[in-house]
Specification:
689 residues, alpha+beta, Beta-galactosidase, Chain A, domain 5
């Protein structure tokens, strides 16, 4: 895994005051269910088969059985604290037989089970039990009868929790279940790490605190139904209100239609997942950003938040603006060399290189996102507000480079990384464009350094061989190239939008770019499901290695966009179709990564057991992949937009509606012939050449 975000926890407590006329029993008549034993291994609990509902800060993790047993990650969470770990339903003394589990949205899952309760009824079930579980901690249990006679059904729900933090659960250091007490119309748990409660509507006929049981008895006529709603709450806290709900989301609800029906599901799920991961700045609630991913990284991760906001710019600039404001407030001040740096954790880079610095990546992404957000329609007033922070990022860059050419790894004796130079080069050129457009000095110096970097990079980072050469993954401290063919080279193709809708020159020349495109299109890198993190012929290749062979959706999308922009549509199309096929296998909810095994006829991509799903960069990558096909190049300050669609129209006709350019709805259609036509746009927006 990448660096893990530390979930925030809430701790509040209120007094339990029983109300109502429901009878309460202080002791159980039977033995309570045996709580699950804590896991003590060093491995993360697997998540690849889990059904994860997200509406941050709420989270619900379930298995396909529907019953929450307290094993692994199962449970209802808020702000990284497990409020409920067990929720087991029994009807007439038996557990329903699970027949279906299906996500009905990013924040909701539906379970269906059946029972045969009528005597002499034959093999057919006559009771259906439906459970709809929501990330906000609400669960609706509905019983439906198909029996020809009235039924009297006793229902029991066994509840329990350990009030454990997500980090403790991940490391296998959870404690025993917390004793329950009767509370209002349900149960309450109070532990050293906080307290939570479950209330029920209608109130139970009986509550057994020592066993954690709530009991009802329902009478169902033929064809009748009855239900219970459970509400899990952090004591003293209001119900979870997700930031990304449609009424308040900073993202437009774009839709995709076309000849390939998969595009509709991919864009819808990508937007829903990104919305589900949005969080507010607690001190500035109007500003939002995307958490890196669930369940492991629900906290802030600056580099991923900026990358996701950048890929989501076709849905509007509001998320970009909020993310930039939040991170500008974290920017380091004081004297050089750290002044202007946006703090961030280290990221594991695999076995061949030491951990990378996401602070460097975030600091370089900041001016890039601001420059491109301005092109997509960020108002001038917000650009001016954020410009000083971008200038400090660019000043940090020039200070860190010093009299040299390369931006070196910040750790002592660290390597000079290929992708870091790509990020720095793009930041310099787009930053210079931004400074010039806003009448600020410094653009000429940044362009001069970027020109020197291009000249040096094309010699120092290119390794000639009989196959046509390749870019080095890094240069060691002694100047030796690290000869690995890695997906991080995709960032060499990501040049970004300059003024007038043109792309900045890249670090590679035309011949080198053509060779990199050929390498990315080879079986060593193109798995058939996307771009491998490391070529199959490289030492240490591992199809499950998160930096040594697994397909990372973000880097694949960057490669697709860069290859399409450079004119290598065959290679871009192959990677695009691979990710689209993988998305279908994952229910169109793309994980951050999956195994880089070679695709075979009739096969499916192998999930990575520790991958976040949903993940912000993977969800935003779905948006980038589809909008790349239209080739949108907006210049809102100039009131123009240029369309350079992929000429081969690899998915046939494609229509994207509900995008936002220059602060207004924007829709575009790409025909089967690869021709693009604007169908909706802001008043006065002209089609550029």
């Amino acid at each position: 895994m990448d660096e893990a975000g530390s979930p925030r926890t809430d701790r509040t407590g209120t007094a339990a005051v029983p109300v109502g006329q429901t009878r309460r029993t202080a002791t159980a008549t039977g033995a309570p269910p045996t709580p699950p034993q804590p896991r003590r291994t060093g491995e993360l609990p697997p998540t690849h088969t889990a059904l994860i509902c997200v509406a941050l800060p709420g989270l619900a993790v379930s298995t396909e059985q529907g019953q929450l047993t307290g094993r692994g990650l199962e449970g209802i969470y808020r702000a990284g604290r497990r409020l409920l770990s067990r929720c087991q339903v029994r009807v007439a003394g038996r557990e329903p037989h699970a027949v279906q589990a299906r996500m009905t949205g990013a924040d909701q899952v539906r379970f269906v089970g059946t029972l045969r309760v009528s005597p002499h009824a034959g093999p057919d079930p006559d009771v259906v039990v439906e459970r709809i579980r929501h990330a906000d901690g609400t669960e609706r249990i509905t019983l439906r009868s198909a029996a020809p006679r009235p039924l009297r059904l006793p229902v029991e729900v066994a509840l329990g929790t350990d009030l454990a933090a997500l980090g403790a659960i991940a490391s296998g250091h959870t404690g025993p279940e917390v004793p329950a007490s009767v509370h209002d119309s349900g149960l309450r748990w109070v532990g050293p790490n906080g307290s939570s409660s479950v209330s029920a509507d209608p109130p139970p006929a009986d509550a057994l605190a020592s066993a954690g049981l709530l009991r009802w008895e329902f009478e169902l006529p033929p064809g009748g139904s009855a239900g219970v709603e459970l509400r899990v709450r952090l004591d003293g806290a209001a119900p979870v209100r997700a930031v990304g709900r449609p009424a308040t989301s900073p993202l437009s609800l774009a839709t995709a239609t076309g000849d390939d029906p998969r595009v509709t599901a991919l864009l819808r799920t990508s937007v829903e997942d990104l919305q589900a991961l949005l969080l507010r700045d607690p001190d500035h609630p109007a500003d939002t950003y995307a958490a890196a991913g669930a369940p492991w990284r629900c906290g802030p991760a600056p580099a991923e938040a900026l990358a996701a906001a950048r890929m989501a710019l076709p849905l509007g600039a509001r998320l970009a603006a909020g993310t930039l404001r939040i991170l500008a407030r974290t920017q380091l001040g004081g004297p050089a060399p750290q002044a202007g740096l946006i703090p961030g954790p280290r990221r594991d880079a695999g076995a061949h290189l030491p951990p990378g610095c996401t602070a460097t990546e975030a600091t370089l992404l900041f001016p890039v996102l601001l420059a491109e957000a301005r092109r997509w329609g960020l108002p001038d007033s917000e650009t001016e507000e954020l410009l000083p922070a971008a200038e400090r990022c660019l000043t940090w860059l020039r200070t860190a480079v010093g009299d040299g050419v390369y931006l070196r790894d910040p750790q002592p004796g660290g390597p000079v990384r290929c992708e870091t130079q790509a990020h720095a080069h793009r930041a310099a050129l787009l930053g210079a464009d931004l400074l010039d457009a806003c009448g600020r000095p410094g653009g000429a110096g940044l362009r001069e350094w970027a020109r020197a970097l291009r000249t040096a990079f094309r010699d120092d980072f290119w390794i000639d061989d009989l196959g046509g050469g390749r870019p080095a993954a890094a240069r060691a401290p002694d100047g030796r190239p690290v000869p690995l063919l890695a997906a991080t080279a995709a960032h060499l193709l990501d040049t970004g939008l300059l003024g007038g809708g043109e792309h900045a020159p890249g670090l590679l020349d035309r011949v080198q770019t053509e060779q990199l495109a050929r390498l990315f299109g080879s079986p060593a890198m193109d798995s058939g499901w996307g771009l491998r993190g490391l070529g199959t012929k490289e030492p240490g290749f591992n199809p499950f290695g998160h930096r040594s062979g697994a397909v990372r959706v973000h880097e694949t999308a960057v490669a697709v966009a860069g290859l399409a922009t450079a004119g290598y549509e065959k290679e871009a199309t192959s990677l695009l179709r691979g990710v689209l096929a993988a998305a279908g296998a994952f229910g169109h909810r793309l994980p951050e990564m999956y195994a880089g095994e070679q695709r075979t006829a009739g096969g499916a991509p192998l999930p990575h057991p520790a991958a976040c799903r949903p993940a912000a960069t993977a969800a935003a990558a779905g948006i980038l992949l589809l909008t790349t096909l239209a080739g949108l190049r907006p210049d809102a300050p100039a009131r123009t937009v240029t369309l350079r669609p992929v000429r081969t129209a690899p998915l046939g006709e494609l229509c994207l509606t509900g995008l936002r350019v220059a602060g207004a709805p924007f829709s575009v259609r790409v025909s089967r012939l690869g021709l693009a036509m604007v169908e909706e746009a802001a008043d006065g927006l002209q089609l550029g050449v």
